[in-house]
Write a structure and sequence with these properties.
alpha+beta, 6 domains, 6-stranded antiparallel beta sheet, 5-stranded antiparallel beta sheet, 25 strands, globular
Length: about 800
């Protein structure tokens, strides 16, 4: 049918031309635009080709006809838009004139507010008309055409040819960093050339051909000037657009994503920095670029992995301690598979070049950030001293005047006379905070790494390291088999005997020790006022249950839960699991997998998408909002992989090349440490991502179909992590200011207020108002922190903070002012 229409309009062009009626042809062309919905691609492009083959005189008369049609009374907005497009095409190569100039500029201005357009609309004719007239295009117009040419799936050759003529401005406007770069460049030819060159970074990695002109431009401008400018630009990346764009009716918010043309330029800026002499600020800025570029955008995923990868590539090309440290830090934080692979490759290559193991390079990569002793540094600036101290997981900067007296703010003399030093100290404090978080996560993963260290190397890299030492001195270790902790300036045994030498060191885990000894070490930590950076002495131990002995090869301990898929996916990646998002498509996926090469094992957590009865619970991009959980299994690491349909169904082992199926390993054959740590991860996934701990779901969520599950999870039996929390609260409550209003009974913390009595569930944090067990919905803050409660034995239990915050609030329920809460009381 369409082919017939296309031929009809080709014939009409010939007929109108032969009959000397080119003006009438304009009317026919607008009819064609209605038939093809303004899409001049495929066979329809042949109609335009036939039109462009007409003589200049004939095309000029067609152009006049289009002007007449544009002004006709029956022409609507669509017809006028098509008339302008066709006018630009038919006028190609004709003498510039003023046909509908104002209207064309208005059309281009409207386009400039869009992110991109369908290339089949053939709007490039509008641009060609302006270029032929010698008029410069508005920067926002240039931007929309560049975005369309760089993001189109079909890479239209005509559009790309026109866009190549749009060389000014060098970058697209609309992003703060790019507009700052354009202001910095001004009319300077070298700076303009530099911006033009970075925009050519369209490949995955820089080549010698790309590097050569980049080096020449850096030499012409000066390395320090280039670095200073580039770091200023990178600091602005990710800020809100300077003006919003309209995107498609579907898909992600285009204003949250990078401009695709500028994204290439960002890659070029990253590569450019790697050609400059190493500098700590460069490594810091590139690390920030990687993290900013991997921030999630709803419906899109990571904002721009290509730019993140360019940041990693640049860091890998810089031979400096700061760059290596940034690579090691990012390797503990990044979860996006492609970028993580690049990071692993960069660190492996650096380790091989230095003749070290990957683990050793990660340990040696941690800088001191100016700390001159464990967790402390003094910076003398004139008569003033800046003191940097690590308190827990944060670095704190304080000031002392000439007499040694503490002052609350930065002294004016420091701001005036030592501005650069002050900037460096503040940057170091931020770096310490980031690295502390990364190193805490790395240490928490060491339980399954089977690492041991020679005593001297361990002291240098851990216990006495200026930064890592602030974490290592709050953990328990085994020196030649003896458990030790650090207190009063030395390693000490349970009886506080000092230990000052040894041969081999390993990280202590409670699974290897008797309950009485574990409790004794908890008391030791409390006696010495040590708050561990994560659960170690209080770490949950998951021993084999009778039910698991009965099932033999799988655990159902964490089956039949409903999890928020994207939250689970992020948590799994952070904990070192490999997972694939479940999409509502006809496809299969493996279970969530954690590979344990040191043990020759692979752990699997079987999951499937849950879209509701009519598959309504999915995102715009087609991914399930929630998952259903099933078994945990263990296999030899080289066993064929299992997979199941994303929408549910039986897991089957995918056998290739004549492979034989491999049975799951009996759970009693899995080393207790491995079993405990894997199940602890899975407990974390359920505890954080379960819909059962959402306080707003008392109605059971969509259609109420989660009501039974929400109730059973939100007020049911405690899991292992909640039991650990209960033990801690039993010791903690007597020290609280509200101790006389709190009691622990079974699964709940009971709180006596002035209005009512309440029960807070120790697993979910959900609240019931007694005596009728009426549900009380209090939504915790996203950054809930534990109220001042004296000594806490470990950091990082957000649910503990939520429970304590709710208890403090409810104990003083007559002081509650939130209208949403008051309406329930």
């Amino acid at each position: 049918m369409m082919k017939g229409n296309v031929q009809t309009y080709k014939d009409l062009i010939s007929k109108r031309t032969a009959d000397g009626e080119p003006e009438a042809l304009a009317h026919d062309l607008l009819k064609a635009a209605v038939v093809n919905s303004g899409n001049w691609t495929g066979l329809w492009s042949g109609v335009l080709d036939r039109l462009c083959e007409l003589s200049p005189e004939t095309r000029a008369r067609v152009a006049d006809g289009l002007v007449t049609q544009y002004h006709s009374e029956e022409a609507g907005p669509a017809a006028r838009s098509n008339a302008l497009t066709l006018l630009g095409i038919v006028s190609h190569g004709l003498e510039p004139d003023d046909r509908l100039t104002a209207q064309r500029l208005k059309q281009l201005d409207d386009l400039s507010r869009q992110h991109s357009f369908w290339y089949g609309s053939r709007y490039e004719g509008l641009v060609e008309a302006e270029l032929a007239a010698g008029r410069p295009l508005a920067p926002a117009v240039v931007a929309v055409f560049r975005r369309t040419a760089s993001s189109t799936t079909y890479r239209d050759a005509t559009l790309i040819k026109v866009v190549r003529q749009l060389t000014h401005p060098a970058l697209n406007v609309g992003e703060e960093w790019a507009e700052q770069a354009l202001r910095d460049a001004g009319d300077d030819a070298d700076w303009q050339a530099l911006l033009a060159h970075v925009a050519t970074a369209t490949s995955a990695k820089p080549t010698a051909k790309w590097d050569a002109p980049a080096r020449a431009l850096v030499e012409a401008l000066g390395a320090d000037r280039v670095r200073e400018a580039a770091l200023t630009w990178l600091a602005l990346v990710g800020r809100p657009r300077t003006f919003p764009l309209t995107g498609w009716d579907y898909g992600p918010d285009v204003n949250a994503a990078y401009d695709p043309y500028n994204a290439d330029a960002l890659r070029g800026v990253a590569w450019l920095l790697s050609l400059l002499p190493p500098h700590p600020d460069t490594a810091r800025a590139l690390g920030g670029l990687v993290e900013t570029s991997l921030r999630k955008v709803a419906g899109l995923g990571p904002r721009n992995p290509k730019v993140a990868n360019a940041g990693v590539t640049a860091l890998a090309r810089i031979d400096s301690e700061a760059a290596l440290a940034e690579l090691a830090r990012l390797a503990t934080r990044v979860t996006f598979k492609g970028t993580l692979k690049l990071l692993d490759g960069a660190l492996d290559a650096r380790a091989e070049a230095m003749g070290l193991s990957r683990e050793e390079i990660e340990e040696l990569a941690v800088p001191a950030y100016g700390l001159t002793e464990v967790g402390r540094a003094e910076h003398r600036l004139g008569d003033v001293t800046g003191l940097v101290e690590v308190h827990g997981s944060k670095a704190v900067l304080s000031w002392r005047n000439a007499t040694g007296k503490a002052v609350k703010s930065v002294p004016s003399a420091v701001r005036r006379d030592h501005a650069d030093d002050l900037k460096d100290i503040k940057a170091a404090v931020k770096d310490i905070d980031k690295m502390l978080s990364a190193q805490s996560e790395r240490l928490d993963r060491q339980f399954l790494a089977r690492r041991t260290w020679p005593y001297a190397a361990w002291r240098a890299r851990y216990l006495d390291h200026p930064l890592v030492g602030t974490l290592a001195r709050r953990l328990l270790w085994k020196v030649d088999g003896r458990t030790v902790g650090y207190a009063q300036g030395a390693l000490r045994t349970l009886t506080d005997d000092p230990v000052d030498s040894g041969t081999e060191v390993s990280l202590w885990h409670p699974v290897d020790h008797e309950p009485a000894e574990i409790v004794a070490w908890r008391d030791w930590l409390e006696r010495h006022g040590i708050t561990q950076p994560f659960k170690q002495a209080h770490r949950e131990v998951y021993l084999l249950t009778d039910a698991e002995r009965a099932t033999g090869t799988y655990s159902n301990r964490f089956a039949a839960h409903f999890l928020r898929q994207h939250q689970f996916h992020s948590l799994a990646a952070v904990r070192g699991w490999r997972n694939k998002l479940r999409l509502s498509v006809d496809d299969e996926a493996p279970p969530a997998i954690r590979e344990l090469p040191q043990w020759g094992l692979r752990a699997e957590y079987w999951i499937e998408g849950d879209g509701g009865e009519h598959y309504e619970d999915i995102t715009e991009s087609g991914s399930f909002l929630r998952l259903r959980t099933d078994q945990v299994r263990f296999y030899p690491i080289d066993a064929p992989e299992n997979s199941a349909h994303c929408c549910g169904g039986e897991y089957r082992m995918w056998l290739r090349d004549g492979q034989d199926p491999v049975e799951a390993l009996p759970l009693d054959s899995v080393p207790p440490l491995v079993l405990s740590e894997v199940l602890r991860d899975v407990d974390l996934f359920v505890g954080v991502a379960s819909v059962g701990n959402d306080p707003t779901w008392q109605d059971g969520g969509p259609d109420g179909r989660f009501q039974e599950y929400w109730t059973s999870y939100g007020f049911g039996e405690l899991g292992q992590s909640a039991e650990t929390r209960r033990v801690l609260l039993d010791r903690l409550i007597p020290r609280l200011a509200i101790a006389d209003r709190c009691t622990l009974e079974g699964r709940f913390l009971h709180v006596k207020g002035d209005r009512h009595k309440y029960k807070i569930h120790l697993g979910s944090g959900n609240i019931l108002r007694t005596p009728n067990d009426q549900y009380l919905c209090i939504v915790p803050k996203s950054n809930a922190s534990a109220p001042q409660a004296g000594y806490l034995p470990y950091e990082g239990d957000r649910m503990l903070a939520v429970i304590l915050s709710k208890a403090m609030m409810l104990a003083a329920d007559t002081k509650i002012t939130d209208p949403t809460i008051l309406s329930q009381l």
